[in-house]
Amino acid sequence: MPTLLHIDSSLFPADASASRAVTATFRKEWEAQHPDGTVIYRDLAAEPLPHLDGLAAAAGFTPAEQRTPELEAAFALRDTLASELERADAVVIGAPMYNFTIPSSLKAWLDHVIIAGRTSMAQPSTVAGTPTIVVASRGGGYGPGTPRESFEFVLNYLGKTLTEMLSLDVEFIVPELTLARTNPAMADLVDLSDASKAKAHEEAAAKAKTVTARLAA
Where is the Flavodoxin-like fold domain (predicted)? Predict the structure, then answer.
């Protein structure tokens, strides 16, 4: 049975979060395609992970047979999170832009699952090639040619981290201008916001079907 790893990191509930709404669309279509499948769900806002500390980091560089009980205990969470990623046939990640970059909760997840010689810097990585859809929502517009293009640190960071360090097969869905309906200064952008939102949901459903077909091939 195929397994989907679904990660949300928005601080807000689904009715107020563009990223949660779009990851939910992907998951709904995925479950329709895989009624007997498994979904592993991590809500990093509701159940935040501790930041990686020195002991847990050291444990990741220590061979299992050489770890002390203290190092084993420190490594347990990293092992659990990495195992969830390794089990996944596909991954969907909600990554809203906060202060021009990803939520710290998502950064903490990445720090835990990037394990040298296992999920990263291994030939091959234990997660190499896993189809991964990232919903990178943002309240404004940060695309090429926009005034805030240089403030975009979500796609650049996640693109490099997920592909270069974890060797995942990454695609992005980018709902933009999500604050247009609540910010009076963006009133003239409401139509563009609605179109971006609709496109994101269409892409999420389509990508769920595409990933399903790829896995079945």
Answer: 3-174
